[in-house]
Design a protein that fits this description.
nine-stranded mixed sheet, 13 strands
Length: about 325
């Protein structure tokens, strides 16, 4: 096997290869569907209050997840192949890893849509394989019952089942997880921040999990642009139907650069049918909690926010709405139930 050097693609070569001349990627203006690229942002964010209900917490999470997912009217149906992508997976519990209750609720929702257990794959990227006793494995087992198999989980860090995608104009090829290429739908389950307190961007987390690291390294600094290349978008990102966060807890950095867990009480379950909408909401939700609102409306951003019922913490909701408004995002609110 030929040894590859992980050199990065120059911006000039990337723009030429994708047909994005005219400096579209060199500015903060929106990109259009030119030649080999796409840009879609027409989704909504839906939220519901989560209670700290002890032994009933899992059931409450599942009820709220089902209600919000049904509101989004997802196209997942009987017989479809579904790939669940997990965000940060570590040896620590939520919020340092994806909340296992969120995985349980997602699996229950898929089963309710008529998806069979054998049609579900769960992909994650971690230095260590999940053990049978891990909370994520246990939650999946409880959700799927006798149909559960450890093989439902795929750690892409050591994966050997890739498919090569040929990119336009001689750009370096990328390898995508076989399960992603085969899937009809992708569901991303993540968290607000990673274990180091940095905000998690769904597109980037999905790319880092479903694309082979050696090829992805060649596009360092251009990951956002790469996801818009049409051949890659069709294979992966256009299939993302749902993005979900348990936003009750997150990891924050202190003044001394240490990491600590923050709890929002009561918190919210936050799901969306669009990665851009989710990223906009999560960014401003975090900035509101930190009271560090920034002007970020470099482009004409808008957000449709569907709020389930009355919040048990209206102050936090108002803070987030204010953060969105002050940043220049055009916000449209819809009250559910």
């Amino acid at each position: 096997m030929k040894n590859q050097q992980h050199t990065t693609v120059s911006r000039r070569s990337f723009l030429k290869g994708t047909g994005l001349g005219l400096g579209a990627l060199a500015t903060s203006t929106p990109t259009f569907a030119w030649q080999n690229t796409i840009d879609v942002h027409q989704g909504v964010v839906a939220t519901a209050t989560l209670k700290n209900a002890g032994s009933q917490e899992q059931a409450h999470m599942q009820d709220q997840y089902m209600a919000l997912a049904d509101t989004l009217d997802l196209p997942i149906r009987t017989g479809h192949q579904v790939l669940i992508v997990l965000g940060v997976v570590s040896d620590k519990p939520f919020p340092y890893s994806v909340d296992s209750k969120l995985l349980h609720a997602s699996l229950k929702h898929l089963l309710a849509q008529g998806v069979k257990a054998q049609q579900i794959t769960i992909a994650y990227r971690s230095e260590h394989d999940l053990q049978p006793t891990s909370s994520l494995m246990v939650s999946a087992s409880k959700a799927l019952g006798k149909a559960f198999k450890p093989e439902h989980f795929v750690n892409t860090l050591g994966n050997t089942h890739w498919e090569t995608l040929t990119l336009p104009q001689g750009l370096p090829a990328l390898r995508v997880l076989h399960s992603a290429k085969r899937a009809d739908h992708i569901v991303y389950l993540g968290q607000l921040t990673d274990q180091h307190g940095q905000p998690v961007i769904p597109e980037q987390a999905i790319a880092q999990t479903l694309l082979a690291a050696d090829g992805l390294a060649q596009y360092a600094g251009q990951l956002d642009d790469v996801t818009k290349i049409s051949v890659l978008n069709r294979a992966v990102f256009a299939k993302v139907r749902l993005v979900a966060n348990n936003a009750t807890r997150f990891v924050a950095t202190t003044d001394t650069a240490q990491c600590e867990e923050k709890c929002v009480h009561p918190g919210i379950l936050n799901i969306s049918n669009d990665m851009t909408s989710q990223a906009i909401f999560a960014r401003h939700y975090l900035s509101a909690l930190h009271d560090k609102t920034q002007v970020t409306a470099r482009t004409a951003q808008s957000l449709v926010w569907m709020q389930q019922g009355s919040s048990r913490d209206p102050l936090t909701i108002r803070l987030v709405e204010s953060a969105l408004s002050r940043s220049g995002v055009a916000l449209k609110k819809v009250t559910l139930g």
